[in-house]
Design brief:
This protein is an alpha+beta fold and about 500 residues long. It is built from 14 helices and 20 strands. The strands form 4 sheets. The protein has an 8-stranded antiparallel beta sheet. Strands 12, 13, 14, 15, 17, 18 and 19 form a 7-stranded antiparallel beta sheet that branches. Strands 3-2-20 form a 3-stranded antiparallel beta sheet.
Length: about 500
């Protein structure tokens, strides 16, 4: 792989070839970050050959089949309607059990259906193809349940009954919820969605007064997959666990001695095997307190939390077409201020916060009062002009994988802001170990969802994307050649509207 120059600067040539396909781009970045070589095409022809998509995995894990369900509390939407954004909080959740139910509905409940949209349902957060590969589990003592938003319930799982010290919420992503054609890219997308889901969980908990601690995956995290009945292991990420700290913990189980070592994972699909190996490189395991999910001192807006989650959109198109389209509109400086404040809130726990400190935030802005159009860098929550560049969003549109055509909307030229989150993968691994590569994607997903909530409160759509051509984007944004774009978020004013069926409870 191309190394840095002798003076310590970025390499003259990008570590990942400019013409690399998007499906293998990030696994190549991981190879660069860990000092490995990506074998030449002649040695991996069996991996490059495209395969037809197979059936994706079901929306709920197989361990939920036939399980008894416990209804979630009704009335969450009404409670949120009476909580003003941003500082207001719902009232009326009488105990910790009810509060957690409302927090789960706040974070993950279905919001609406758009009849003309090919990808339903719509929740308060985005997901690739509306597949929602991240599942939400609640474990309490020896009981484990999965959130079923369609039944508005928690459904019991057939796991191994491994006891938990207290009540905890676990987030685990399933790669096979996305089609095989996504290849290695399934790992990236699921990691980003884990970060998005983590922010939604923390948002719901914060609004309903719950506190907790985050446990990132460690050496024994595969045991959580067994406890939840998630099989085969290779289809699942290691879970992120949030331990609730608002109640007395359950009695600790009697010591049983050291558990038997876990057998090595054997994955027949070589692409999935590499994806799983990257995920299993995480070696954290510490429990760290949650911080805030909502920034302080946000600009005031006459809107409720229920309305913010209802408005959240990744953009619309008419008549069942794909993608998003917008229109140019001058916005006030408070729109930029709100997005910047959401972007300054670090993800929870000291580990993720330290990883987040290595992430650079660059924005391409236009039509913001008091700011010239161009490229900006966010420093300490304030955007500073890097380069005045009128027309930069239109340039970016030329580097976006989804073109504007009669069947698809890939409208970047009318965007108010396109935020790019980037980092130096090799620096991350040198500082925090190989698991930091995945942790940085959690952090980027967390930040992207913050931009989405800020946009919703401002009447904008926000579309997370990993579809920009990386090398042209690096040049336009002034990034280093060895700086990986973790995620981008396109925000703008929607061009189209249409009927929406309210599905909130």
């Amino acid at each position: 792989m191309t190394q840095a120059t002798e003076h310590g600067g970025p390499p003259a040539e990008p570590p990942v070839p400019a013409d690399v396909d998007i499906m293998s781009r990030d696994v190549r970045w991981f190879a660069h970050a860990t000092g490995a070589d990506w074998p030449p095409p002649a040695q991996r022809g069996h991996l490059a050959a495209p395969r037809p998509d197979t059936e994706v995995a079901p929306a709920l894990p197989e361990s939920a089949r036939g399980g008894a369900s416990v209804p979630l509390p009704p009335g969450t939407s009404e409670l949120l309607e009476n909580a003003a954004h941003p500082a207001g909080r719902p009232v009326g959740a009488p105990d910790a059990a009810t509060a957690l139910g409302h927090a789960l509905v706040t974070g993950f409940g279905i919001q609406r259906k758009e009849p003309e949209n090919p990808f339903n349902d719509h929740r308060g957060y985005p997901s690739v193809r509306a597949k929602f590969p991240v599942q939400v589990f609640v474990r309490d003592g020896e009981r484990a349940r999965v959130l079923d938003p369609y039944r508005h319930a928690l459904t019991a799982l057939a796991g191994d009954g491994a006891p938990a010290a207290g009540r905890e919420v676990l987030l685990a992503g399933r790669y096979t919820r996305l089609p095989d054609s996504y290849r290695w890219f399934r790992g990236t997308l699921v990691n980003l969605e884990l970060g998005i889901n983590l922010r939604q969980l923390c948002l719901g908990m914060e609004l309903f007064g719950l506190s907790g601690r985050l446990r990132l995956p460690g050496p024994d995290a595969r045991r959580d997959l067994d406890a939840l009945g998630l099989s085969p292991h290779e289809e699942w990420t290691l879970p992120l666990a949030v331990e609730l700290t608002d109640e007395d913990p359950a009695p600790a189980a009697a010591a049983q001695g050291a558990p038997d070592p876990l057998p090595p994972e054997r994955v027949a699909d070589p692409v999935l095997a590499e994806t799983v190996a990257l995920n299993r490189a995480q070696d954290f395991g510490r429990s760290e307190p949650l911080g805030p999910a909502v920034p302080e001192h946000l600009p005031q807006a006459p809107i409720s939390w229920a309305e913010v989650l209802w408005r959240r959109s990744a953009g619309r198109m008419p008549r069942g077409l794909y993608g998003m389209s917008g229109r140019r509109r001058t916005v006030g400086p408070q729109v930029l201020e709100a997005a910047a404040r959401w972007l300054t809130v670090p993800p929870p726990g000291d580990t993720l916060a330290a990883v987040w400190d290595e992430v650079r935030i660059t924005g391409v802005l236009q039509d913001v009062e008091g700011h010239v159009d161009g490229v900006y860098r966010l420093h300490d929550g304030r955007p500073s002009l890097l380069e005045a560049r009128p027309g930069a969003p239109e340039e970016l549109e030329g580097h976006y994988a989804y073109r504007v055509d009669p069947y698809n909307g890939g409208d970047i030229r009318h965007a108010t802001a396109v935020w790019f989150l980037s980092a130096h993968p090799r620096t991350l691994v040198e500082r925090f170990g190989p698991g930091a590569f995945t942790a940085a994607q959690y952090a980027a997903g967390w930040a992207a969802q913050g931009v989405g909530l800020a946009a919703a409160a401002s009447g904008l759509y926000a579309r997370p994307a990993r579809a920009f051509q990386e090398v042209p984007a690096q040049r336009l944004l002034g990034l280093d050649t060895d700086e990986m774009v973790l995620c981008a978020v396109i925000t703008g004013t929607p061009r189209f509207s249409g009927p929406m069926y309210d599905l909130r409870l």
